[in-house]
Amino acid sequence: MFQFYLFLSLSSVKIGGILVLDKAVLKEVQKLKKDCIVLSHNYQIPEIQDAADFTGDSLGLCIEAQKVNKPYIMFAGVDFMAESAVMLNPEKTVIVPD
To answer: What pLDDT sits at residue 20?
Structure first.
């Protein structure tokens, strides 16, 4: 995961004060997450939200994770959000990146 985020930060471009991910980076992210749903809380930085499958509040994201047939959930948020995801999706593995 660390290399993934390092790659994102090195491949971002700053335009008018806003960080924008290169389209090639987003395409690579899509390949890497074939068995994983990526959830981003709405307070995450824009490039993380761009790479996510869903962005929203913690409960809404956990509910979205239930609808997807993927074994892994990557939750870009704080620990209690991931704990909620575990309770609502006990058969899935929840990952919280640093």
So the answer is: 56
